């Protein structure tokens, strides 16, 4: 039997018009309300919601594709956050507190379903069905970071009610596991150092280039926007900033990282497909995968943000 070919699509963040244009560019057709291709399937990298103006429209495109077998998808940190925002622990507290920062981040999603709480609940239930990772024949997919130890520790890529509850308790491994898989590997900066993130919030931790064993200083290890680099010290890095992912492993596709520069793989077998479509000047990216172990830089396809 012929191997399944996939088109991997990065973080959409409520940008439905760009998603439609990208699906058209990839020769998918809308038949009876469901986008599909005769030979290929989509794999979404997660982060359907937050930021953009068309969150319901995005869900209304991707969910039927997944439910009818025309697409697969992993969970992004924004789906995870939405689930945690609506779920309480035994003490009746929300797993993701309803503070101003969280509520602001979530505002457009809240507004989208403000008049239809049943649908919102239904969408949240669907988010829970999204796997934390996919380990398929010939490729892997996770929102932010592939960590073999965590994958084998969690065993099944399912956000069970138990795992959901545990992953919101700081200090236990389940918390760190979800943080790493869905939000990336982070390390603290040296004492007293911080930098402003893209929303202007001060950050004392940096996301790391977790696969890059050549990176030796905080500056080299830092995985984020160039304009933040001036705040990052060039001192030798301490702590565990690396996760082994050798170049003979299956290719792994990530979203999450708000890339801005040239579209190219992070390593021969690692590619990030999040090119900030939620921002002015951003792009929505796909990669057309046909079984190759090494990522082919000519197989990225994109549409510009409108
Ligand atoms: Mn994202």
Descriptive report:
- The protein is globular, with a radius of gyration of 19 Å.
- It has 306 residues and is an alpha/beta fold.
- α3 crosses α5.
- The chain contains nine helices and 16 strands.
- The chain has helices at 16-25, 55-67, 77-86, 100-112, 117-128, 148-154, 161-166, 173-183, 218-221; strands spanning 5-9, 29-31, 34-36, 40-44, 71-73, 133-136, 139-142, 186-188, 195-196, 202-203, 205-207, 252-254, 270-272, 274-275, 283-289, 300-304.
- The model has no long low-confidence stretch (mean pLDDT 95).
- Strands 1, 4, 5, 14, 15 and 16 form a six-stranded mixed sheet that branches. It has a four-stranded mixed sheet with strand order 6-7-12-13, with no helix packed on it. Strands 2-3 form a two-stranded antiparallel sheet.
- The protein folds into two domains: 5-184 and 245-304, Purple Acid Phosphatase, chain A, domain 2 (4-Layer Sandwich), CATH 3.60.21; 186-242, no CATH class.
- It is 28% helix and 19% strand.
- Manganese (II) ion (MN) binds next to loops.
Which fold name is given in CATH as the topology of the largest domain? Purple Acid Phosphatase, chain A, domain 2
Report the major sheet: 6 strands, mixed
Number of helices: 9
Strand content: 15-25%
Question: Strand tally, please?
Answer: 16
- The end-to-end distance, rounded to whole angstroms, is 40 Å
* Small-molecule components bound: manganese (II) ion
Average pLDDT metric: 95
Along the chain, the helix and strand elements come as EHEEEHEHHHEEHHHEEEEHEEEEE
How many domain regions?
A: 2
